């Protein structure tokens, strides 16, 4: 499993890095849209407990369509449209629920509405934050800054938990995660942030990096736990198998999508 994880990363990382570094905004939006489409499928796969035939029902299709519009709006740097599109997604789900509602099916229908609304703020909005971050003057460097912090922290948490873990973090959600792993991950977040800052973003104040790095790491760990919570509820082991050693796309970006809005906020309003 460890070998597959590293081989997948070694193959994928250079291709994605070159695309982010040298590709235009449109290609970055396209990359995020592909990631978002796969993550959307995996999200509804989890929501429907693996019942693939329900993924292409009207509700999920409408959510996916609105999610794509959100990413396009972000690519055009139209932050003002995001609220309208989230509302449009929710309103469409409300209309579909009323069309299908009956006393017998009401609970299931409202569960789908809740799941669809959660989807809009869980996947498209954080991915839109990544696109908006890419559109900032130093956005490319910040994309790598965020990814470097989150992914190295995730790897450190995995190995610290594997070899040093003694105390369970939240066994009801994820029996394998430990407090020692969480601490190791946050320590790696800090080291990664200061190494990256010293080389590529020397203008960033040390104190703000000291605040941002652990917050991004904690957000990432919350994202990992939240996806684990969804999978455990639906009795699903992995969101997919597209990435050998990692599972699905959602398994790989669960931490990143929790940390992305935080990075956008810090970049625009703090730094």
What's this model, at a glance?
The chain has helices spanning 2-22, 25-47, 58-75, 79-100, 106-122, 124-134, 139-164, 179-200, 206-234, 249-270; strands at residues 168-170, 174-178.
Low-confidence stretches: none
Question: What is the H/E string?
Answer: HHHHHHHEEHHH
How many domains? The number is 1
With helices defined by DSSP (H or I, 4 residues minimum), what is the helix count?
10
Category from helices, strands and their pairing: mainly alpha
- Give the helix level as a range of percent: over 70%
Kindly estimate the percentage of residues that lie in beta strands according to DSSP: under 5%
Radius of gyration: 19 Å
* Strands, total number: 2
Numbering strands along the chain, what is their spatial order in the largest sheet?
A: 1-2
Mean pLDDT: 91
Keywords:
3% strand; 271 residues; 10 helices; 2 strands; mainly alpha
